[in-house]
Structures
1.
Amino acid sequence: MHINKIVNIPSFALSHWLLRIPLAIVFIQQGSSKFPVTLEDAEVYELPYLVWWFVAYGELGAGFGLIAGGILLFFKNIWINIGDVITRFSGFTIGCITTGVIWVSKPESFIDVILYDNLHVFLWVGGLYFALRGSKT
């Protein structure tokens, strides 16, 4: 009797927005804080200007891509598939940028990253989720 009640729990099909929106906001905010993109800012982090440029535009693009990929789910036909590709690419970009941030911080060990760099670990896992799962949540 109790098992039937558990099976009938409704699913919340829009739950991906609970992860998508905060992750997008963080990346849009971080990306927009890098503008205007200058050589001096890149030198602070000991990065080439081209890498810094890709980071700034990548963060903005990934954030807006997560939102756009989710919005395209409300349309039919090919738009759902395009939204899925945009979401996956945005998640991949988030994972790459976050990996770079962790790498540039030069942690002493993997354990140090897991224990003391919680924000970047959560951002990396969120990016990995959308890269692997896409919009098919």
Note: Residues 55 and 97 are 7 Å apart (CA to CA).
2.
Amino acid sequence: MLDHLGSSLSFPTKESACARASTLPHRAHLRAVFGPAARKGGRPSARMPPPCIPDRVVFEKLVQVLVFGCAYERIADRTCSATTLRDRRDEWIELGVMDALRESALEAYDRFVGLEVADVAVDCCITKAPCGGEKAGRSPVDRGKQGTKRSTAVDARGIPLGTITAPANQHDSPLLVVTLERAGASVGGLPEGTSVHLDRGYDSELTRERLERRGLLAEISRKGKPAPLQATKRWVVERTSSWHNAHKKLVWCTEKQARVVDFWVAFSEVIIIVRRLIREAWRRYRWEGRPSRRP
């Protein structure tokens, strides 16, 4: 019965296999898309390239990552994937987008409000870096766990002028000069006679010599003597550190590459400067759409 030529159960012969029609009509289309000719570039692919995600969507997603400190996969949705967030972040790092945005925000604040660089405060803050990385070291305040240190210079109102990141096991004093150089580059150089307010961790003759060599005045709390925070002008840098720590990506930083850590620190400074600009401008100016209550 199986050898009967007209039976549907007969074994296919060479002639019947060649004459048989295609079972799936779209197989030819799939061969055109996934076949060897398409993979080698012989024929153009029938698939359309994925649409480009607007920068605004990616920027809003990265703000959420900065504020909440969660993984990229937690923020990704159908509008933007985690891979796109990382790729666009790396692209902006290569182009220096966040550094340029920070300079623009600082320039706008200086134009409309004004930076007060006659008094500058510098201090360090240690945060967690559980994944290690290029900016991680043994934290002296967290039982030797991995941590990152931020050295920040601010003006008299707490506006961040420059921040340096380093492993948590580095001392504060060697980071002072680099931090002041970063701050000076942001404002076109610190004026001569600027008072630099520091806590007792910087109390050394070497620190005073370094500041004097640059024409800066050292206002350092003495070791062994009470120095209430409210009695000095360095409390503003403590407040700025708390503003930084409101962005949980910096408090619990899982990034390993130094350039990515610096990207998030610069991103945090942009948010802080813009928020302070809106708040101070609300008191000084009137414009269309101005909120009725102070932001």
Note: The chain has a mean pLDDT of 86.
3.
Amino acid sequence: MPNESPDHYFRLIQGSRQKRRPSGRLWCPAADVYRTPKGWLVKVDLAGITPADIKITIDGPLLRISGSRRDGICGEGVSHYQLEITYSRFEKMIQFPRSIEHASIERDYYDGLLILRLQEEGQARAASLNYQRAFTSN
């Protein structure tokens, strides 16, 4: 297929790695990753998620963010008219160029964004997960 763009092949490879739920709906939140002088900054769009429903694991160079979004607003006797928001389990996998297992992680959650600051071993200040502003309003 000489007329296919390289992007076409990357989409095929990426699509084959993703897991689909039995319902066929896949929720993979958007993320931005930045290189900083001290390590990495990761922002993940997780609107409607409570911090207790977020799990973060590291395996070598792989960062896995998972959890679920639940609809706690609607109750019995409510029927839907339009549904666009996905309420289900999610998973975001981010591959780093080298192992991040020994990095410390600072964790913030506000305005629907999960903010992770990964500091490399030599730059680390703490080795635990920290909630700095979980659902606080100023």
Note: Confidence is low (pLDDT under 50) at residues 13-24, 123-138.
4.
Amino acid sequence: MPMLRWKQNLSETIFEDTGNMSILQRDRTFQQPLNWTTTFFMLAFHVGAVAALFMFSWKNLGIAIFLWWLTGSMGIGMCYHRLLTHRGYKTPRWLEYWMAICGTMALEGGPIAWVATHRIHHQNTDKEGDPHSPNDGGLWAHMGWIITGKAMHQNTAELLPYVPDLRKQKFYMWISKYHWVPLAGLGGILYVIGGWSCVLWGVFLRTVVGLHATWLVNSATHMWGSRRFLTGDTSTNSFWVAILTFGEGWHNNHHAAPQAARHGLTWYEIDVNWYGISALKRLGLAWDIKLPKLQPAYEPVKPLAPAIAPDPLVEEEALVPTSAGD
């Protein structure tokens, strides 16, 4: 059992987990067959990322940083996660679709697979059925579930019942099937702009950094960090993961109020994704924004109703909402 430390100042960490979880011990990754297609592309992108380091230029660095924000913040954090998965706010349909396209360029799959897998994680956090729980090993939670053939994200049809809102829209069905097209097009544009060195920085290196940053939310923020809320799972807040993911590292805050569009609850909890949503609101491009309602630390977090009504094709027991969310 991990040792727990309590603090009574609500503006600071309330509940801190000081235990450690093994990264490799009994890791499920080594018990599942690899999906060789996925593994090949992951290796190829990592090789390209290393090669990019030998072709440095300030222009390439600037392009990579901008695309990291465009795909990781606007695409994944603001759109895939806080908008599509949790419906934490609303935007015009054209903007929602543009942000979703940005999300595909992060190489994290199409919106249907991403959102459905994420909702499954919310319903089964750190329990049987969680696609990427550190209880199955730290490597598994980080990337093992991605590179093995048993991961649910490999079967889009199996995931459709979890996204009744998205599957009704032809755009999401199409972009989920051809989610690789925007990234391929981006690669062509970068080649015209700056040749292969620009492609290596703007696609390969930027994508690898973004992937590992997102994966750290699944692994690191369920293994190490501080806790403000008693959520009934292993979610933690991590400053360094929040920096790498534009605010997604305030994971315990998020588990306490999954539908909230804001994850950083204090001035020092930097949440770039929330700043982006706030900017959209000022421009009249975001509304019906859901914000967290804080509870005293000594009271367990109450379960919230799911953001999307459960689909009748999914067993009712599997969709009972928990107090946690990724």
Note: The chain has a mean pLDDT of 84.
